[in-house]
UniProtKB/TrEMBL annotation, chain A:
InterPro entries: HTH_ArsR_DNA-bd_dom, WH-like_DNA-bd_sf, WH_DNA-bd_dom, WH_DNA-bd_sf. It comes from Luedemannella helvata. Residues 11-93 form the HTH arsR-type domain. Pfam families: HTH_34. This is Transcriptional regulator. PANTHER family: BSL7504 PROTEIN (PTHR37318:SF1).
From TrEMBL, chain B:
It comes from Luedemannella helvata. Keywords: Membrane, Transmembrane, Transmembrane helix. The keyword Membrane applies. It comes from the Bacteria. This is Uncharacterized protein. The lineage of its organism: Bacteria, Bacillati, Actinomycetota, Actinomycetes, Micromonosporales. The chain crosses the membrane at residues 28-46, 58-79, 91-110, 116-134.
Amino acid sequence: MTDNRVHPRHQLDEVIHAPVRLSVMAALAGADRITFGFLRDTVEVSDSLLSKHIATLEAAGYVAVVKGYEGKRPRTWFSLTDQGRTAFRQYRETLQLLIGSEDPGRP
Amino acid sequence: MTESPDMDPRTALSEIDRVGRRVRRDRWWPVAAALTMAAFTAAFYIGLKAFPGTADDYVLPGVLVVTAILVLITFRRRVVDRGDNRREERTVWASIILAVVTIVLNRFVVPDGLTPWGVLVGVLPALPFMVLAWRTARR
């Protein structure tokens, strides 16, 4: 394989293209910010697994973490960075390309 | 859920849709907050004009109940949409401006007692909250 790989699957962002991280990115793309608890329940993973994947997305510059308090209760919010929104938009476009490249009429 | 490097594009897109729907469902809370504010604001201004003698007794308990409801909703709120703060701020300012209009009309134009005009003018400051609730629910 050379560097001239043109098939859309080569453009899939490996950071996003994992089930948990994909769900996290999809949830965050639909809002400005989301709490840790809501994200965990939506993605249906344990606290520790979510933290692990958030750390990966944070290291990639896709997710920002804000820790604070509401009243006396500690609360952690997550949001997508501009870089994360761009990456997710490109990821979706690549998925559409991949589906579009599948020709059902082909034998 | 585990890592799966060979995730099918259709599966990925359907998961994006599922999560998107789940996030949108949580918009019920800001809609509830906006409707609460609309109901209280309308009741306040209509009551003030229609029942000036008794409305005063209900203002403080009303404010306390509404504050408690809004605090509860704020704590329950787990998803904040983009631009929510800006929209809510604009809604409050619009309501304040319309409240001034209502006060002036109630003082100089609207007849005393429970009249259709009193109700219509009393609803004016609640309109921005109704619009906010409608727009949030529609997104």
